[in-house]
TrEMBL record:
Domain AAR2 N-terminal: 13-144
Biological role stated in the UniProt entry: Component of the U5 snRNP complex that is required for spliceosome assembly and for pre-mRNA splicing.
Region span, Disordered: 160-207
CDD domains in alphabetical order: Aar2_C, Aar2_N
Protein name: Protein AAR2 homolog
Top-level lineage group: Eukaryota
Family annotation (InterPro entries): AAR2, AAR2_C, AAR2_C_sf, Aar2_N, AAR2_N_sf
Domain AAR2 C-terminal positions: 229-382
Organism: Parnassius mnemosyne (clouded apollo)
Keywords for this protein: mRNA processing, mRNA splicing, Spliceosome
Subunit structure: Interacts with PRPF8 (via RNase H homology domain). Component of a U5 snRNP complex that contains PRPF8.
One Pfam entry name: AAR2
Stretches with biased composition (Basic and acidic residues): 160-170
Length: 404
């Protein structure tokens, strides 16, 4: 970094002191990671803002690396944060550092400084784009209650009393009376459909599969360890909707997006949640976070009316997903292209919606540029957007025309 920036960060930057970390431990901040040396004591010159601190214990004998753990931390100007390593648990200590100990470290800062690594400033601009809509409050709201984001969450078996009976389980499965109620709604919506297969048979098949799943152990995250993502509503339509309205809300999921946005303090926090989930996957190695990120992308790409109502949300959605795809691991990108998975298909749907609904102005310019960049950099094919693919054609619902 240039001298002027270095001087400014020396004065205003935050400091993270991590005491007792064993040599060769994997430690990182944001998108940078190192193996620590014997005299490592932490990071200095941290730019004010949100940061992701993460670490993994490394076995001295075998070199095996434990699943990554970490936490989001908002640094204000001149923040001085101290944490300890717990040798027994090979993890960050849960004990709070006393104010007296912190003050002694501050008084000894001249000697401590040579053991602190400078923040890798070359990643700062990209990092700011990746977390531009994540506020300190939002990060705390979405993180587990204990504050630690883990790649491998401790799971516990549910007791018989906790096992779901006739209601939706925490994993999103359906069973019993709840399943029958939903199946009935689907049957009403798709009555006399051109698909050629009765929903009653489909409902029976789903119920049978879920009965088999019910025989398997049901696990739940240990208390305080689960991510607290906003739940995507199961019902995609308002109560009392007609079959025609149900079909509309499945094709245009703006109603579902509205329900999600209503659970946040402001609309752009839905983009902040998208960014948070992505970073927990990219840096925290959480597959649960990846699934939530994918589901949010699919939802945002499945909206029509909302594009016009929440222009700012979709403006930042394009900016966010463009840089996220650039940072996506190659094997995940290959899966998107080779298998034409839902992310790829929903992006096609999103571009087609923008084309059909005549989005104009700056948003349309961004969408066109994004589409061209994906085609140029990744050879993704977005031709033929004015025609539906065979498996994307909507199911036609024929309403009963008989009048009583």
């Amino acid at each position: 970094m240039d001298q002027e920036t270095a001087k400014k960060l020396l004065v205003e930057g935050g400091t993270f002191v991590f005491l007792g970390v064993p040599e060769e431990t994997q430690f990182g901040i944001d998108m940078q990671c190192w193996n620590t040396e014997e005299d490592f004591r932490g990071i200095k010159m941290i730019p004010p803002g949100l940061h992701y601190i993460h670490y993994s214990a490394v076995s001295k004998g075998t070199g095996d690396v434990s699943p990554r753990s970490g936490f989001m931390q908002y640094f204000h100007k001149k923040d001085f944060i101290v944490k300890m390593w717990d040798k027994k648990s090979e993890d960050i200590s849960k004990e709070e550092i006393s104010e007296e100990s912190i003050q002694r470290l501050k008084d000894n800062l001249l000697n401590l400084d040579r053991h602190l690594a400078p923040y890798p400033y070359d990643i700062w601009q990209k990092w700011r784009l990746l977390c531009s809509q994540i506020t300190a409050e939002l990060a705390a709201k979405l993180s587990p209650e204990n504050g630690l984001i883990r790649a491998s969450v401790e799971l516990l078996s549910m007791t018989d009393a906790e096992r779901p009976r006739g209601k939706k389980s925490t994993e999103g499965s359906m069973g019993g009376e709840d399943s029958e109620e939903i199946s009935t709604k689907e049957e009403d919506a798709a009555e006399e459909s051109t698909c050629g297969q009765s929903d009653a048979k489909r409902a029976k098949r789903i119920t049978r599969e879920e009965r088999e799943d019910a025989m398997l152990p049901v696990l739940k995250p240990a208390p305080g360890t689960a991510m607290r993502f906003t739940e995507i509503p199961r019902d995609k339509f308002p109560p009392g909707s007609t079959p025609e309205e149900i079909t509309k809300h499945y094709l245009d999921q703006s109603y579902t997006l509205e329900l999600m946005i209503a659970q946040h303090d402001e609309p752009l926090h839905i983009i902040g949640e998208l960014q948070f989930a992505y970073l927990c996957f990219l840096i925290g190695h959480s597959l649960e976070a990846f699934e939530h990120w994918k589901n949010l992308v699919i939802l945002l790409c499945s909206c029509d009316d909302a594009i016009h109502k929440y222009r700012s949300v979709f403006f930042h959605f394009i900016r966010t997903i463009e840089i996220q795809i650039e940072e996506m691991p190659e094997d995940f990108l290959a899966d998107i292209v080779m298998n034409k998975n839902l992310v790829y298909k929903k992006l096609r749907e999103f571009f087609r919606t923008a084309y059909v609904s005549k989005v104009d102005g700056r948003l349309l310019t961004m969408i066109e540029r994004f589409k061209e960049n994906l085609t140029e950099k990744l050879q993704w094919d977005f031709t033929g957007l004015d025609a539906d693919e065979e498996d994307e054609r909507p199911v036609i619902v024929r309403l009963n025309e008989e009048v009583e």
